[in-house]
Design goal:
A hairpin with a 4-residue loop joins β2 and β3. It is built from ten helices and six strands, in the order ααβββαββαβαααααα. With 310 residues, it is α/β, with parallel strands linked by helices. It has two domains: 206 residues, no CATH class; 86 residues, no CATH class. The protein has a six-stranded mixed β-sheet with strand order 1-2-3-4-6-5, sandwiched between helices. α7 packs antiparallel against α8 and α8 runs antiparallel to α9. The chain is 44% helix and 12% strand.
Amino acid sequence: MNKKRKLITFDWAIKRLLRSKANFGILEGFLTELLKEDITILDVLESESNKDYPLDKFNRVDLKVRNSKQEIIIIEIQYDREYDYLQRIFYGVSKTAIEHLEENKPYAGITKVISINILYFDLGSGTDYIYKGSTRFIGLHHHDLLELNAKQKQLFKKDSVEALYPEYYLIKINRFDDIAKDTLDEWIYFLKNEEIKPGFTAKGLKEAEEKLSIMKLPEDEQKAYEHYKDDLHYQASIFESSFGDGYSEGKAEGKAEGKAEGKAEGISQTTKNIALNLAKEGTSVDVIAKVTGLSEAEIKQIRSDLPPYT
């Protein structure tokens, strides 16, 4: 039996490897399979979230690239649940479109933005694992689709109104059943399992198998990668165990002192525990506030209970 080759995760590859032009073929393969058209990446565009922050454990990873049609593609990988995630990607796309509109240029110069979101949590309610969102205008009375006229098609170099507007792709990795029915599914399988099965033929996967092997990383990179993976597991444990235990404790106390009061107390203690654990890891006040909802003063009070660093 052939031993399976362990591959690095796609988010690590985006952080460390896929910004190099020599590795564009991997990313182009994924985008080609998802968007159902041949994609050529011209360059990687800088953004605030492209920078390497020390807060990797929260793992909001994204990459912004420009393709040969001058469209901008944002790829984001998200591990932790965010209830307002849909609004955040709308904000991100809008900001990107505005950033790339040159001053004093007509609106016709607005760049098409494609937002691709690889999610390791269950967003919203639905049974599929890949969702696409776009903008169309439908007549209220005749139910016809608004189309571009000939002059607009020539000016915008687009065939439809929908092609002018942002597109959103939501890939819910944990919903995938591990059965690859087509080449796009082969990519989803890799994103979920960090493994490429023999016989997979999706564009870019062969190159991914060759270049994303853990064993091909330099020793220091292998150690950094393992530390990164440990951080992800640790972070998941903090959220799952803390929220679970806190709710149970609050519920138990609620039986003795009143359910509402007990639940509130349990959640309050849970929040403090999470903040304390994050503070121990050196997480910034801003990030702890975002995760827990605590005020800056409350977080500083919690941090003051920690022993001084040696």
